[in-house]
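Dock zinc ion; give full complex structure.
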Amino acid sequence: MIDYNKSTKITVISGAGFSKASGIPTFRGKNGLWKNYDPSELATPSAFARDPIVVWQWYKWRLNIILNADPNPAHLTLAKVEQQGLDIAILTQNVDDLHERAGSQNVTHLHGEIRQARCVSCGEKFSWTLDLLNIINDIPKCNNCGSVCRPDVVWFGECLDSNILQGCIDRLFMTDILFVAGTSAVVYPVAEFPFLAQLQNPSIKIFEFNLDYTPISNIVTEIILGSVEKTLPKFFSI
Ligand SMILES: NC(=O)c1ccc[n+]([C@@H]2O[C@H](COP(=O)([O-])OP(=O)(O)OC[C@H]3O[C@@H](n4cnc5c(N)ncnc54)[C@H](O)[C@@H]3O)[C@@H](O)[C@H]2O)c1
Ligand SMILES: [Zn+2]
C-alpha cells in the first residue's frame, strides 16, 4: 500500500475519535454530554472560575471512564508498528493515556493529561488516581501550598505549551508519512498541522482516518473512511 522502511519518519495526529471504541466519548458526539452540559462550556478557564466544583465533577466522570477503559485495536496497532522498529511519533490531542497503555513510547500530549492535577498557585503537579477520585468530592488541594488545583489539561481559549508545540512542529517538518486519525480537525493549532507539514514537504504522504470528511480532507493523499479501530489495523495488515 505505501512504501516505508526504518528510516521513514511516520507521525500520527490522533483525536478523540481514536479512543471512541475504547468507550471514551468524543466532545462532538451525542454521548459526549454529561448532565446536558456542553463540553465547550465546561472545558474553559471561565467555567472553572465560575464553578470549579461542577468542572471537577465533570473531570471526575471523565477520568472514571478513562481509568476503566482499555486501548483498542487502533492504539495497539501503532504500538506494534513501533515495536517492529519503525520511527513513529504520536502527537495526540487526547488527554487519556491509552496510547501509552497500548505500549507506544513516543507520545506527545498537546492538550495535557487528565491523570494529572496542577496547582493554580505554585504549579506543582500530582497524579490524580482512582483513590483520590473516590475521596475528593469537591476540589483537590495542592500538597505543597494548599491552593486549589485544576486538571492539567489545556482548555478552550488557552495557549498550548510553547516547548511542546515547537517539538511537534520540528517533528512535522521532518515527517515523510502523516496519519491524521479520529480528529475533527477544527481545534487549532493542531488543525493547522497537516497544512504546515505539507508546506514544508510537498511530497509528504498524508492519510486521514475518519468516519467522515473534515476540513483537511481535500489536501490529503488518501482518506480512509470508517472506524479507525478497524481501518488502521487493516492498513498495516495487523
Ligand atoms: N479521549 C480523550 O482524551 C478526549 C475525548 C474527548 C475530547 N477530547 C478533547 O476534545 C478536543 C476535541 O477535538 P478532537 O478533534 O480530538 O475530537 P472531536 O470530538 O472534535 O472529533 C472526533 C472526530 O473523530 C471522528 N470519529 C469518531 N469516532 C471515530 C472512529 N471510531 N474512527 C475514526 N474517526 C472517528 C469524528 O468523525 C470526528 O471527526 C480535543 O482537544 C481533545 O483534547 C479528548
Ligand atoms: Zn501549590
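Observed: The longest helix spans residues 52-67.
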